[in-house]
Amino acid sequence: MRKYFFVFVLSFFGAGLLSAENNVHLSELRLQKEVIGNFDILKHYLGNYIKYAKENPEDYEAQWQVSQLSYYLWRYYGFKDKKQLGIYTNLGYKYAKKAKKIVPKGQDAVYYEVMNLTAIGILKGPLYAINVVKVIKSELENMLKLYPAANYKQGVWLRLLGRVYIFAPPFPVGFGDIDKGITIELKATEKFPNEPMNFIYLAIGYAIKGELDKSIFSLQLAEKLLINSDKSLYKNMKQMVMVNHLMNLVQQYKEKGLERIPKNIIKNKVAY
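Above: the chain's sequence. Below: its structure in token form.
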């Protein structure tokens, strides 16, 4: 039973346009946000990214950006297709590890290593997942030790670690601690009050704990931030859909007089 809990936990985990032909260095490029919404364009650029990375094996940015693009492909298009999921997650993890060998403390490398590894854990099953969730927790804690300001991606190390504690099964099966998870998510919202995802993760924690009014309030804050967000329309819409799904779910439970929302219900309603 214990091993299936860890798979459940992992399931919540959950650049510019490269021109290798004219030798434009990746540090001068950033992937246009709107490109995330086009599968064919993403696949096209992935080939160029890989070519450049192979030609420049010591280029840190070249390696992690292949991992980034692989992550975008499986996250937005391949998660329900196990074949595509396997291809892109393994490719992303492989190049994140290459980047990490070049710059061991590189935050971009670790971020995409964690995100791709999460999906690999889901795909490979229980035995592999047990080790994966431990690695993820360790990596997140290590990043917070190295970078206590936690300003990378507006508090992503905090919110991911908080989410791990929220969804992990408690002792003696696992290390989960809903109160500790919520405390970490609160810290993320306090340090980075303009990041919608911090409030979304906090709302999920409150919903699972049974504090539905606090969950609704957190979602309302996230919604206001998204309305005024300068993120790409595609990414903004994805997050707004998640907020709406969560808001409807929490309100339904509140109207029925139910105290808390089970973790598996959150998972089924918000696969993001």
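The domain at 1-148 is CATH 1.25.40 (Serine Threonine Protein Phosphatase 5, Tetratricopeptide repeat).
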